[in-house]
Amino acid sequence: MKIKDIICAPGRTGFFFDDQKAIKTTAIADGNAYTGEPCTPGFSRVRQAGESISVMFVLEDGQVAFGDCAAVQYSGAGGRDPLFLAEDFIPVIKREVAPLYVGKEISTFREMADAVDSKPLHTAIRYGVTQACLDAVAKSKKKMMAQIVAQEYGLTLSDRLIPIFSQSGDDRYTNVDKMILKGSDVLPHGLINNITKLGIKGEKLLEYISWLSGRILQLSPRENYKPVIHIDVYGVIGIAFNNNFDAIVDYMAKVQAASGPFKIRIEGPVDMGNREAQVEALAALVRLMDSRGINVEIVADEWCNTYEDIKIFTDNRAGHMAQIKTPDLGGINNSIEAVAYCKANGMGAYLGGTCNETDRSGQVCTHIAMATCPDQMLAKPGMGVDEGFMIVYNEMNRILAWYKNVSL
Closest Cα to residue 138, out of 336, 1, 334? Predict the structure, then answer.
C-alpha cells in the first residue's frame, strides 16, 4: 500500500511553551501568566500557548494515519531545538518530509522511521512524523500500533496496565486528591523547583511528603492501594545542601522516613550544570545511598535528554531510573530502544515526556508502553490530571481488551 499525500494541520498542545531563562531570572508570575520580557529566541512572551502540528498520511485505500509533532514545555532551553511554532514548521514538513513518503510503499516501521529520524530536522518533526509512520504500518496491516512495535522489536505485549504517573504542577494538593481518587499508580510530581517550595534545609518538602502519605491512607480508593511517591525537585536539594553528597544522603534518609509505608522516588536531586558532572554526581549518590541501605530511588532527568544520554547514565548507574522524555528523543523509535536499553541493563525505565504534548502523542506513547513494558508511563498531556490520566488509561484498556479478544 502506498502513501498518496501528506496533509498538515496546526494544533494546540495540552499546556504552554515557557521561556525557562526568563522565568529563572526576570519574569514575575502573574496568575497563570508571567510579566516581563522573554529571553529565549523565538518567544514573543514568557509564557505562550503550546503549538503542535498534526501530520496526516493519506493512504491509497482512503485511510488516514496520523501523528502529532510537539515539543517540550521549556523549548529552546538546555541545548534543545528552538521554539516549535506551526507556522514556521509546516512549510519545512511539506518541503523536507513529504518527498520521503509521498508515492512510496509502506514498508516496516523501523525503515520508515529511520527515513526521517536520520535527517537533521527539529526533534518535534521527527517525533510526530514517526508516530504517523507507526500508524500507517498498523493500518496497512490491520493491526494495532502496539502489535507492530512488539513484532518488529521482538517484544511481548503487556497483559496488564503499565503503572501510570500523574503530575500535579503547582496545584500539588487539590491535584493529589484527584490522583488518589482515580487510583494513580505513581504520584504526584510536585514541581518543587525552588528553595521556597523545598524549605531552606528541605523541611517544607518533608512536611509535604508526610502529608502525602497521610492523604493517600485517608482517601485510598481500594484495599492495598500503594502508589509510589515520585517528586521532581529540579536540582534544588543540591542547592539547599551546597551539593554536599553526605548531607544530601542524610536528607534522603529523612525523605524515606517521611514517606511512611510508601516507596518513594526523587527526580533530579542535583543539577551539576553539564552531563559529565551530572553522571558522576548521581552515580556517587546511588553508591552512598545503597551503602547505607536508604530506599529512596534517584531518577535521572537533567542532562539525560537523548538516547545516547540515557545509555551513558545507564552504563554508569547514574540513578535508579531514567526519564525517557519522548519529544526530546526525536523519532519514537529512539524511545522504544531507550526503554529496551534501560531494561536490559538494570536501569528503571520511565517513559515520560511533557505536559506540552497532545492527546494523539499520548495515545501513541501508550502503544509504545504496552509493547515495551517500562516501569511507569507519564499521564499526558496537561497538568490537570483528569485529562491526561483518562487518555493514557483508556488507551491502555483498549489495547488490553483487544489483546484478550483477538488472536495475535
Answer: 1
Helix (H) or strand (E) holding 117: helix 109-117
Q: Please say whether the beta carbons of 156 and 150 come within 8 A.
A: yes
Neighbours of 30 (CB within 10 A): 11
Grid coordinates representing 160 are 496488564
Length of the chain, in residues: 408
Q: Is pLDDT of 406 > 90?
A: no
Q: What is the pTM assigned to this prediction?
A: 0.96
Residue 231 CB neighbours (<10 A): 28
Closest CA to 370 of 401, 328, 331, 347: 401
Q: Are 61 and 33 in contact (CB under 8 A)?
A: no
Max CA distance (Å), the chain: 63
Beta-carbon contacts of 293 under 8 Å, excluding residues fewer than 6 positions away, are none
Residue type, 267: E
Cβ pair 399, 366 in contact under 8 A: yes
The C-alpha atoms of residue 40 and residue 184 are separated, in whole angstroms, by: 35
Cell numbers at residue 57, please? Answer: 498520511
The three cell numbers locating residue 226: 500503594
Catalytic residue from among 139, 178, 311, 325: 325
| Separation CA 33–CA 315 (nearest Å) | 40
Query: Is 325 annotated as catalytic?
Result: yes
Average pLDDT of 3-12?
98
Beta-bridged to residue 16, according to DSSP, are 49
Question: What integer is the mean pLDDT of 171-199?
Answer: 95
CB 113 within 8 A of CB 330: no
Among left, alpha and beta (phi > 0; psi -120 to 50; other), residue 176 is alpha
d(CA 248, CA 181): 33
